[in-house]
Amino acid sequence: MERHLPQLSRARAELTRGVEAVNQFGETQTTAIPAERALTVYVDKTELVTLMTLGAQPELLVLGFLRNQRLIDSAYQIESIAVDWDVGAAAVKTRGGLPDLRERTAKRVVTTGCGQGSMYGDLMADLGHIALPEAVLHQQQLYGIVNTIRLMDSTYKAAGSVHGCALFRGEDMLMFVEDVGRHNAIDTIAGWMWLQDEDVQRGTDKVFYTTGRLTSEMVIKAAQMGVPIVVSRSGITEMGLELARQLGLCTVGRATNKHFLCFSAPHRLQFQPSLAGARLRVAA
Prior knowledge:
Blueprint: E1 7-8, E2 16-22, E3 28-34, E4 37-43, E5 46-53, H1 58-68, E6 78-84, E7 89-94, H2 101-104, E8 108-110, E9 118-120, E10 137-138, H3 139-151, H4 155-159, E11 163-169, E12 172-179, H5 182-194, H6 198-201, E13 206-210, H7 216-224, E14 229-232, H8 238-247, E15 250-256, E16 259-264, E17 269-270
Parallel strand pairs: 1-6, 4-7, 10-17, 13-14, 14-15
Antiparallel strand pairs: 2-3, 4-5, 6-7, 8-9, 11-12, 11-13, 15-16
């Protein structure tokens, strides 16, 4: 039987809007801010959740949200996702319904995530069954990733107040997205991955980059997506580190310019210390 990927609308919205603010000189000036908006998700006409989002690629966000919350096992379960910004809603139509949807979404876990705030069910229950693929990232490739993000023409540069996430193969960027919350951004990438070929879907040799901190839920989502290496401009939490070590997932934090700290699975990182430049000597 032939399987079909879901049909997606192409709803788009302005990512920023101009507002007036008063600067340090007492002068009024026009500046850009992110255009945060609410998107209520309905699954087969049943209200599921309201996501606060920038709205860059809302259909992928919804698909990735369903994936990372483990509410669906395959993109083929979804017939269509239609987003209508006039009413702020995303209508998800499944091919055969989602069994026990109410029971599976009854338990919420409050998280540290911005732009989302809760996760459904016990996402740590099946972590023992996740086997991440072998993969190695060279230090030169890590520097290439950081530099690519630095050079991106982004909403953050224009308006600030958003998180960016990207998926790389080596230092080659496959996907980049920004949103008001890092969870929305990673969910959007998860949705995009599910619509690609099997190599991308499995994560395998991919590297996930985020501007946000590496919390337990970010580590869990990366592992569920099969991505073995995660890089962050920010740091890592204690639980995030504990789970990463348990999973053998490589976490690289505080990655700016040529500086970084590898917190877990350093065997996945091919160190090239000579690329870091001279070490600064501190007088005694």
